[in-house]
């Protein structure tokens, strides 16, 4: 049996997939934008995201995030390891949720993250301890209701070359355009269209630095029909024009 516990680093690169087992993602450092079945949340220190089996989920971290991940083993393993905690664990894993950890649970997560989790005894018993600890009534569990930023980012990237309206993004979040605008400004500190503009320019910088596409072609791919307007926008955003960004490396 492979280890149910692993340490993972997430970057700005958006990951989107599903798998036939449930998963728990515990934040250790940084902020991980997480979206499961259309529900958005943030995974950071002292929180975790619950990913049910076969649930489509997406995640990414602008500044990098380090997490402890528990790939929940099969039903037989759960029955053997969890005893009286089995039914509560099944309920926990049924639907997407965000969980705030108690100090004791955070201590356990941090101890396991610093341990030899490639050791099968530590990994198996550590996973069982984590699952059992999450079934106590004092663990605050709630369905995630933050905006699905990972799904919104994926939509913006996919349609960067075309006009985007607030209503398009609001529809993904299941909100009216007016309510979405208010929620988005509250959660991100930006208006939706400012966010779209910034996301497009970040994509443009990546294309300039990782490809040999002509500047006009890069501009078109991120929704600018005018190369001069594109260059002006880049200068406002990054303090450098397109040609200077092309030779710049982080």
Automatic annotation (TrEMBL):
Query: Which segments cross the bilayer?
Result: none
Tell me which Pfam families the record gives.
HTH_18 (PF12833)
Question: What protein does this entry describe?
Answer: Transcriptional regulator, AraC family
Annotated HTH araC/xylS-type domain residues? 150-248
Record keywords: DNA-binding, Transcription, Transcription regulation
Molecular-function annotations in GO? DNA-binding transcription factor activity; sequence-specific DNA binding
- Record's function text: Regulatory protein of the TOL plasmid xyl operons. XylS activates the xylXYZLTEGFJQKIH operon required for the degradation of toluene, m-xylene and p-xylene.
In terms of domain of life, where is this protein from?
Answer: Bacteria
Q: Does this UniProt record's set of keywords contain Magnesium?
A: no
Q: What is the lineage of its organism?
A: Bacteria, Pseudomonadati, Pseudomonadota, Gammaproteobacteria, Pseudomonadales
């Amino acid at each position: 049996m492979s280890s149910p516990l692993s340490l993972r680093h997430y970057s700005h690169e958006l990951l989107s997939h599903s798998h036939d087992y449930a998963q728990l993602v515990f934040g250790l450092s940084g902020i991980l934008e997480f979206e499961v079945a259309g529900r958005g949340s943030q995974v950071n220190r002292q929180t975790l995201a619950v990913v049910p089996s076969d649930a489509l989920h997406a995640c990414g971290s602008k500044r990098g995030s380090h997490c402890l991940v528990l790939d929940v083993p099969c039903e037989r393993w759960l029955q053997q390891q969890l005893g009286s905690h089995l039914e509560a664990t099944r309920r926990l894993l049924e639907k997407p949720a965000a969980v705030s950890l108690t100090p004791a649970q955070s201590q356990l997560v941090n101890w396991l993250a610093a341990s030899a989790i490639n050791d099968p005894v530590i990994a198996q018993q550590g996973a069982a301890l984590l699952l059992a600890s999450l079934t106590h009534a004092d663990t605050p569990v709630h369905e995630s209701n933050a905006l699905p930023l990972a799904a919104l980012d994926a939509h913006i990237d996919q349609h960067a070359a075309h006009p985007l309206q607030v209503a398009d993004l609001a529809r993904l979040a299941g909100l009216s355009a007016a309510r979405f605008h208010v929620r988005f400004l509250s959660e991100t500190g930006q208006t939706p269209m400012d966010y779209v503009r910034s996301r497009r320019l970040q994509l443009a910088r990546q294309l300039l630095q990782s490809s040999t596409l002509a500047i006009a072609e890069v501009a078109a791919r991120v929704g600018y029909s005018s190369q001069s307007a594109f260059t002006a926008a880049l200068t406002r955003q990054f303090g450098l024009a397109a040609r200077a960004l092309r030779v710049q490396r982080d």
